[in-house]
Amino acid sequence: MAKFVIPSTILCLLIGIVGPGLPTVESLQCVHPPSVWCSDKAIAKSCQVEKQCEKWNPPTAQAPPVGVALYYESLCPGCREFIADQLYPTWQKLGNDVINITLVPYGNAKEQFVNNSWEFTCQHGVQECRGNILETCILYVAKDFTTAFESIHCMEASTDPVTSASQCCDEASLGFGPVSDCSTSSTGNKLEHQMGLLTEALDPPHKYTPWITLNGVHTDTIQEKAQSDLLSLVCDTYQGTPPGACSNKHDVCPK
Ligand SMILES: *[C@@H]1O[C@H](CO)[C@@H](O)[C@H](O)[C@H]1NC(C)=O
Ligand SMILES: *[C@@H]1O[C@H](CO)[C@@H](O)[C@H](O)[C@H]1NC(C)=O
Fold it and tell me: More exposed terminus of the chain, fewer Cβ within 10 Å: N or C?
């Protein structure tokens, strides 16, 4: 938690409000120095600065984003549907401050170390392995997750994720050159191996794709909710003040 320091402007404001003309019982109980007034609700109350502290210390400040990890492979129809219908629209509504997405493009692939590099075998063939590495390289080359996810969503939502890669990178202002170079280099090979390690480390091990975890946890219930209404699942899990997009969700009311 961040150390609490009240800047002098706020301090003046607070003193101005509780200073003169309020010799009430509560203010007499305010035995704390102004520097700690907003550090605790009871203290704020005794010093009559509750409202000021709310503004100053919004409850969302310390809530971490909800972690949603997707273990998938580039050509699996269910994965493409989940990205297009759930993950991408939910992320657009909530943003990186509320949902922290981890993409792991590997899925049901297998790997073997041959002649000093990894050889991948993919469920939907060679093109799927190519798509996995391209998306892994996009995550590596892009300067931020937003750029990477825009590119990857564009690929997964297109009729052919692999041949659309170049155009999708362009549209997200991500040069395709470095992505393509990465995908055929030993760096790309090692990065895709890392995706394999992350996938093989799942506990419980994945049985199918897409495989979804919520804050690192996979259960059948989480999987079903994520695939039917990810927005509600993330909104209900988020510990901070729900963002506007959470109250606008129409299909599920929080219990
Ligand atoms: C997002 O998730 C990643 C991977 O789990 C983690 O390393 C990172 O710290 C998280 N970021 C935030 C802001 O919580
Ligand atoms: C490994 O590389 C050597 C030399 O290039 C080659 O002769 C051999 O067939 C390769 N092995 C496999 C399994 O690809």
Answer: C
